[in-house]
Amino acid sequence: MSFASLASRSGRSPPDRSGAPGAARHGASFRPFFLAGALQAVAVIGLWGAAFPLVARLDPPLGPAAWHAHELLFGYVPAVQAGFLLTAVPHWTGRRPLATAPLAALVVLWIVGRLAVAGFLGLGPFAVAAVATAFTVALAAVVTHEIVAARSVATAAAVVSLAVLVVAQILFHAAAASGHDGAFASRLALAGVTAQMMLLGGRIVPAFTRDYLVETGRAPMPDSVRRLDTAAAGLGLFALVVWLGSPWLDDAAPAAGVVLLVAAVLLVVRQARWAPLKTLDEPLVWSLHLGAAMTPLGFFIAGAGALLGDGALAAAVIHVWAIGGIGLMTLALMTRVSLGHTGRPPRALRGSTAIVLAIALAAAARAGSGLVPAWTLPLLPLAGGLWIAAYVGFLVVYGPLLVRPGVTPERSGAAPAGVQAPPAAALTRHPDSRRSSSRSRP
After folding, report:
1. Cβ atoms of residues 303 and 257 within 8 Å
2. 24, 232, 291, 305: which one has the fewest Cβ atoms less than 10 Å from its Cβ?
């Protein structure tokens, strides 16, 4: 699916002043941030699980658990969002991509934030908070400026998750400065990102599935039912608010459990209409389905925990959404962007299935380590090892695409039988777009 075609449908075209292929003109933003995000994902789990005592000699401003949560939610997630949004927004708005110098400044700002939080810069708590939050604030400012300058009201939702992350990160550092663990701030960040994944998934998963089925000559998906989609997304958002406040609901916990379970059912019905079983031979598509399924699975677990008063279930949902939902969806998008915006056909490279399954098993192992205490000791390192293996796998399989020049469709080779070669800029549809064209690419 081409950003260029989506931009033309919205009445704008990405600027072309270089004469270079689209992947070269619009491909710079995702490269450093996807590489940095994948390296960050490996480092956070590796250091937390094995080497954090060495880092602790630097007297970092956060303890191991708080540092682990902070760097996944406020380090890894914003890096992937930066790669995605800074690549997508020029196509949505028709404005220039971010120039090299501002892009480099954002990358440096992200790196400085990571060093500050790890204690390498020797800053005090308030300085660490300012430096660590500066990247997310700057990214939100850049994206907001582009959207406002283009008067693209329909894309304004792109900054909402960033705004939630900024607020959550400020609350996190305020809690840390006052001696608290920042649990509410972490929950707020997780709820905000899960909401983004749920809404984004509601657009891209059926769109990519529909296009894949058309291009491979398979039976089409059922027509969408807008009332069902709206009800599922709306109740899902409300259920996230309920989940956010669930630790303080007390006697209202059973009612909250019902809301969470109903939201789960509606989201499952919505996703069942996206024909997930017809995509099992293409990891680029079924990985998106698997990532999207983590949201209702989390609601089922949270709802059961609320109804049964089971604290272990309530804790498990955090890892289902953080590892399964965020991990799967971000990796699925990173692999697709890495292919499409370097001019390659949108077909998974060898090893992609292992990458996706490693993340899924990591989520199961981490959630299971809390649900089955007798298995906690073996499951915790297993979850960490699988997470690291998935991101090392991404760096090995897709990392070379992020450091090599993009290719033209002629150089990338012929597409598989029955599949048209994609344009260089294959990622997702414009937020204004409600329908998928048979000429679009998955």
Report:
1. yes
2. 24
